[in-house]
Design a protein that fits this description.
mainly alpha, Arc Repressor Mutant, subunit A, 2 domains, two-stranded antiparallel sheet, elongated
Amino acid sequence: METAEKPVQNPKKKRSQSDKIGRLKYNQQLLKQTLAEVEEVKLMLRTIFAGLKGSFSFDQPLIERVACQDEIDKEILNLLFEAGSRGSLPKDLVVRLERFKITRHQTSRRIHRMNRRLQKEFGQQVAEKRGWHWALTSFVIESWGEPENS
């Protein structure tokens, strides 16, 4: 009555998920999961930030870092700040930005993009339309201080 030390059947070696569906698809699934988790973390951060918004101080470099993509965006914000509460027409901005060779349409699109970026992060906008003019919002004016020629 001896028991066999060796099992009758060899245990099957299980295949990994990457072997089952292919390494490329497996890596794509992992990437999607990771990106979804990153988006959840960003959402949590925005929620926490929204709760602490009253105690948080905004300054010019922070707003520029979030809203502006390049030096043209920064220059547009500075020109709107100099224009004061009246604002400035896109064609006037183009005249003062002639070294960058952009059109008035591109200027407006850049302002819209900056608004979208700041809206996503802080729930505020950089500039608003006042008639045909673009002017900085009160949020940005409070952050940067009062312009000299309001």
